[in-house]
Amino acid sequence: MAFSIPHPGTKQEEEWQELQRVLQSGILDKAPNLKHFLEYVAQQYFSGHTEQLKEYSIAVQALHRLEQFDPQSDTIVRVTAHTLRKKLDQYYGTEGADHPIQVRLPAGKYVLQFDRKEQVSAPAVDHIEASAPDQSVQALPAPSSPPTRTWACVAVFGAVALLLGGYFVRYRPAKSPTKPTSFTAVTKSAAVAPAFSEAAGAATDRAIRIRWGTASHSYTDVAGQIWLADRYCTGGSTFSHPNQEIQGTDDPALFQEGREGKFQCKIPVPRGSYQLLLLFADTSGDREAARQVDLSINNAVTAALDVVDEAGGDNIVVGKVYAGIHPMSDGNIHLDFTSDGSFLNAAEIVPAESDGGAPMRMLAGPAVFHDDQGNIWSPERFFHGGRRSFHPDNLPKVANARLFEWERYGHFHYLIPVVAGKDYRVRLYFSEGWFGVSNGGPGGPGSRIFDVYCNGTTLLKDFDILQGQNGGAGVIAFDHVKPTAHGMLELDFTPVKNYPLIDAIEIEPE
Fold first, then answer.
1. What is the three-class DSSP state of 417?
2. For each of the chain's 510 residues, which pLDDT tens digit applies?
3. Of 59, 232, 369, 377, which sits most exposed with the smallest number of CB within 10 A?
4. 392 with 502, same domain?
5. Do 416 and 122 form a contact (C-beta atoms < 8 A)?
6. Which residues of 353-375 are buried (b: 16+ CB within 10 A; e: fewer)?
């Protein structure tokens, strides 16, 4: 983003030079959203238009959100600002420590501040407000400053669920609850939790990600992961529906374009076994069954897919997983789309030795995290309904505490693709961050009660995170979870008293 250089010898010219040192230091090279954010707020600062620095304008003009951006339901600006503050603190704690001027983004504001070294003080604690619960839920007091929270342990609960897109079963007849195989308390650890891969910072992994469509450039998602532009395919045609709102993703741009018709792809990969995740969202608005996808993988025909029927409606993300995929003798994975209604938006290919596919570890937010076991936790996807909270300043004092920075709460469900016919071990991660004395809030056991269903079977009935647990913490795991015949795990959270919540989900093939 270009902006005018201030006049030489002025105070603003010195500040501009310091800004250039930050931009050219390399600390933001792998985090384009952070760089775009900083450049935009700097442009407004140096042009004297800081009154335009609102959450909406930053989202639309700097972070490329659609004009329909809603700051109440999308926390991308607050998340990016929080991450940028940490990056600046990191920079001025190391190579920029002796700079006479330091660039700061004060907590709770979007206007840059340039501190002279003689007046530099410790950075303010950054607090990002969580979205307020709906009025139907018992109101929680909004503290003027982050409450002191003593987390004795962290809840990790496992379950995976599948819903047909827009269909949300809010109150199902309860079958006999499936007994959890384990509930393990997570104890405090003196070890420091591993560094969090910032919301706009790329995580290193071995995945190949491609998006198809009219764009000729690669795409960086909200977690900093790179999706290659349309390639490796011949035939068919590309399409673009840029104004469609997409449910179930923080990256609608991945699903507003694609390739359609009869086309063939040859994707080069190293020798090995892979999981192939194909991603779809029907944005065409066509009549029923007009977009049936007929596909063969390495000359083996797969079951036909009606994306709208599978997702439960138009403009809803749905995925299909295929495992045990090996490159053919030419070193490529071959995909052949053979029906006129076929289309594809994006694909993710990851190494996976199991014929049940690769483990899926997913946060309840738009971020990537590396835990202390070397596992990669990916951004949330395949979600429907609910809202998010972000708790970066009140984490439990346990290893891998940043698994609990994000929380989805309210009326929500997930439609998670896995390999049909395989069994999975499922864990859901819970942490009660509102109710209870240890959280500085009202209530206690009995304040939040909810049910969890998987594919129509009751996993948890009248579940209370705080009840009987030390500080509302533990690990709930479910073994031998079977997907639907279509290869989906349908996870449904139903409120009994106040809203359900979830922090992270883990699914492993057995």
1. strand
2. 455 566 677 888 889 899 999 998 988 887 888 888 999 999 889 888 888 788 889 988 888 888 888 776 677 888 888 889 888 988 998 888 899 999 999 877 899 999 987 654 444 434 333 333 332 222 223 333 333 333 333 333 333 333 333 333 333 334 444 556 554 444 333 222 222 233 333 335 689 999 999 999 999 988 788 999 999 999 999 999 998 899 999 999 999 999 999 999 999 999 999 999 999 999 987 655 567 899 999 999 999 999 988 888 899 999 999 999 999 999 999 999 999 999 999 999 999 989 999 999 999 998 889 999 999 999 999 999 999 988 776 677 777 888 888 999 999 999 999 999 999 999 999 988 788 766 666 788 899 999 999 998 989 999 998 886 555 556 789 999 999 999 999 999 999 999 999 999 999 999
3. 232
4. yes
5. no
6. ebebbbbbbbbbbbbbbbeeeee
In a domain, 454, yes or no: yes
Strand 101-104 with 383-390, pairing: unpaired
CB 409 within 8 A of CB 133: yes
CATH, residue 371:
2.60.120
The pairing of beta strand 474-481 with beta strand 155-157:
parallel
Q: How many domains does the chain have?
A: 3
| Separation CA 209–CA 201 (nearest Å) | 16
CB atoms within 10 A of CB 174: 13
User: Taking the model in full, what pTM does it have?
Assistant: 0.63
Q: Domain check: are 346 and 253 in the same one?
A: yes
Q: Report the alpha-carbon distance of residue 413 to residue 417 in Å, rounded.
A: 13
Between the CA of residue 71 and those of 60, 65, 391, what are the distances in Å?
11, 11, 17
CA 49 to mean position of chain CA atoms: 32
Alpha carbon of 275 to those of 293, 301, 353, 356, 378: distances in Å? Answer: 19, 16, 8, 9, 15
Three-state secondary structure call for residue 496: strand
Domain that residue 340 falls in: 208-351
Distance of CA 438 to the CA centre of its chain: 28
